């Protein structure tokens, strides 16, 4: 998957933002697609097509060697990436941008709980501590710290998902 992501970022100049970014930053989750940030979907589409990464009209996504390639805009990330790095030859959004994006999506859509799980995985594996919250937008700092406690403070009373989402879900309007 990393080699395919490298090729996609080479031909578009755009960084990966999804599960591949989680893996590159030290998370251990597996992913089945490549998500890339794009300021202009049409320009990115043409670059993908020119490189042979073709649009599958039936599936409504680009396909590259059997792997779906999705474009993601700034709104979906909670804002445009502030930092882009290269890890293992793959352009990738910075870690703070990745955590912001995953929390933004994971807290606004209950069906995207996997994004919160990605953040939990990064907190555990990188590891990230509460001081990392200063790199996030103000509305995401408290939920991030709660997640850090859940990972690093095993003696604390756990927060049931329903309680966590009741308090922090629907942050989309307040983030950015």
Whole-Å distance between the termini?
Answer: 30 Å
The chain-level structural class is alpha+beta
- Which shape, going by the Cα principal axes? elongated
The helicity comes to: 40-55%
The succession of helices and strands, N to C, reads HHEHEEEHEEHHHH
What is the number of domains?
Answer: 1
Provide the gyration radius in Å.
16 Å
Q: What are the segments in which pLDDT stays under 50 over at least 5 consecutive residues?
A: 172-176
Could you explain the architecture of this structure?
By secondary structure, the chain is α+β, with helices and mostly antiparallel strands. The protein has one domain (2-174). 46% of the residues lie in helices and 15% in strands. The protein contains eight helices and six strands; from the N terminus they run ααβαβββαββαααα. It has helices spanning 2-12, 19-24, 41-50, 74-77, 95-108, 113-125, 138-152, 161-168; strands spanning 33-37, 54-56, 61-64, 67-72, 84-87, 90-93. The strands form two sheets. The chain has a four-stranded mixed sheet with strand order 1-4-3-2. A two-stranded antiparallel sheet has the order 5-6. β2 (54-56) and β3 (61-64) form a beta hairpin. It is elongated, with a radius of gyration of 16 Å. The two termini are 30 Å apart. 36% of the residues are buried. Residues 172-176 have low confidence and may be disordered.
């Amino acid at each position: 998957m990393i080699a395919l992501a490298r090729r996609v970022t080479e031909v578009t100049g755009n960084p990966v933002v999804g599960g591949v970014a989680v893996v590159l930053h030290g998370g251990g989750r597996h992913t089945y697609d490549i998500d890339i940030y794009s300021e202009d979907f049409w320009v990115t589409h043409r670059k993908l097509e020119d490189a042979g990464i073709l649009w599958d009209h039936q599936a409504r996504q680009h396909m590259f060697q059997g792997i779906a390639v999705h474009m993601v805009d700034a709104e979906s990330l909670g804002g445009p990436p502030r930092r882009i790095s290269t890890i293992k030859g793959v352009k990738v959004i910075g870690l703070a941008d990745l955590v912001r994006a995953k929390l933004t999506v994971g807290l606004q859509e209950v069906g995207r709980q996997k994004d919160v799980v990605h953040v939990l995985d990064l907190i555990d594996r990188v590891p990230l501590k509460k001081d990392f919250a200063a790199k996030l937008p103000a509305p995401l700092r408290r939920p991030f710290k709660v997640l850090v406690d859940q990972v690093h403070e095993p003696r604390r009373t756990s927060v049931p998902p329903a309680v966590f989402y009741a308090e922090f879900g629907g942050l989309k309007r307040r983030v950015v």
